[in-house]
């Protein structure tokens, strides 16, 4: 009952200290998880009704200059299948997605010098010119403030930059020395200040993660008040230093999704591909934990498996854009409606 009292306090807008977060995450059981899920779903329904927003994910480059220890696209992975979509291919993905009802496109890729800032600005402008009623989300990593401003001026609406961990020592366990947790957080602050709808997020169960490091993540989210939060289980990739590590817990992932919804009530919260990969019915489980966004894959079918952040990534069925009708039906059976609007974040009244 102690954990449920803490969840009640969080629901009422109460502040949790880091020690309280750590205790809650270290010692919850299934009844606590279901209790949080019930409250999270009620909160999501209060702010969004039964609507689930769709985003069309376009994984446009698998090149990356970074060497993050957990990522299959890390520059040191000589076995990774590298590709870059052309502008024409990306625009074709958008055209296909628009016909399927998508009104948000997500351009996601590694930090690839082959796509210069100028090239990305031109691409952003072309998408917004052709589909002005659509939102455009970027997920292209850490950039300087002036570059973020240029992307925003070109028409980008949202930006996803997962912080991965708010604990400096844990960040060092996951990333090479040239990468800085302070710079990552500064990027998030800059994105919000520019005016982007800004998203952060983290992996659950990454090597070295503890209840204390997760507590730091939750406190960062509570301080940043992001518009979007992406949470999924850590899944290993065989060609990385963490290839033999265990996958993260889906139960803990679902609990954290619920807690984020309870704390940040109007946040846009995806049921992630990683969750759908790790857990049969993971999309639905995420929705029933308080998520309200799904991101089917709009990338060309022939390259989807090449964007291998982790082993076994699902990119067919409900995880694919062409499976949207099946996803609509599956969520309809749960009492939810997949809607085609932009699904913008709205300030709490």
Commentary on this structure:
Helices cover 42% and strands 12% of the residues. The protein has 13 helices and nine strands. It has a six-stranded parallel sheet with strand order 2-3-4-5-6-7. Strands 8-1-9 form a three-stranded parallel sheet. Strand 4 (135-139), helix 6 and strand 5 (158-160) form a beta-alpha-beta unit. Helix 2 (18-26) packs across helix 9, helix 5 (117-130) runs parallel beside helix 6 and helix 6 runs parallel beside helix 8 (181-194). The longest helix has 19 residues, at 30-48. 49% of the residues are buried. The mean pLDDT is 96.
The helix content, as a percent range, equals: 40-55%
Strand order of the largest sheet: 2-3-4-5-6-7
Number of strands: 9
Number of helices: 13
The rounded Rg comes to 19 Å
Kindly, what is the distance between the CA atoms of the first and last residues, rounded to a whole number of angstroms? 31 Å
Structural class: alpha/beta
H/E element sequence: HHHEEHEHEHEHHEHEHHHEHE
Q: Could you describe the largest sheet, including whether it forms a barrel? A: 6 strands, parallel
The 3D shape can be described as: globular
The overall pLDDT, averaged over residues, is: 96
Strand content: 5-15%
List the uncertain runs. Answer: none
């Amino acid at each position: 009952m102690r954990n449920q009292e803490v969840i009640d306090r969080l629901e009422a807008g109460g502040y949790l200290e880091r020690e309280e977060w750590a205790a809650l995450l270290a010692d919850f059981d299934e009844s606590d998880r279901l209790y949080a899920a019930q409250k999270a779903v009620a909160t999501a329904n209060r702010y969004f009704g039964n609507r689930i927003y769709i985003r069309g994910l376009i994984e446009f480059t698998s090149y990356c200059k970074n060497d993050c220890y957990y990522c299959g696209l890390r520059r040191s992975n000589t076995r990774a299948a590298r590709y870059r979509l052309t502008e024409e291919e990306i625009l074709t993905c958008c055209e296909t997605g628009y016909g399927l009802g998508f009104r948000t496109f997500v351009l996601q890729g590694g930090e690839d010098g082959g796509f210069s800032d100028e090239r990305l600005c031109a691409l952003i402008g072309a998408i917004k010119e052709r589909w002005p009623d659509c939102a455009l989300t970027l997920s292209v990593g850490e950039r300087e403030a002036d570059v973020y401003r240029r992307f925003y001026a070109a028409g980008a609406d949202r930006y996803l930059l997962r912080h991965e961990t708010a604990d400096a020592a844990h960040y060092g366990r996951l990333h090479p020395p040239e990468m800085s947790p302070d710079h990552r957080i500064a990027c998030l602050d800059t994105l919000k200040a520019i005016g982007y709808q800004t998203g952060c997020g983290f992996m659950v169960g990454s090597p070295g993660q503890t209840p204390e490091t997760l507590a730091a993540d939750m406190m960062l989210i509570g301080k940043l008040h992001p518009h979007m939060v992406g949470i999924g289980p850590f899944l290993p990739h065989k060609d990385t230093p963490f290839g033999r590590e265990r996958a993260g817990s889906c139960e803990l992932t679902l609990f954290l999704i619920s807690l984020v919804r309870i704390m940040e009530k109007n946040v846009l919260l995806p049921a992630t591909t990683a969750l759908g990969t790790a857990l049969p019915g993971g999309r639905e489980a995420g929705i029933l934990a308080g998520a309200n966004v799904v991101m089917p894959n709009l990338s060309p079918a022939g390259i989807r498996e090449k964007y291998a952040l982790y082993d076994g990534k699902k990119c067919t069925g409900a995880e694919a854009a062409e499976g949207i009708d099946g996803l609509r039906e599956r969520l309809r059976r749960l009492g939810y409606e997949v809607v085609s609007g932009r699904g913008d974040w709205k300030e709490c009244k």
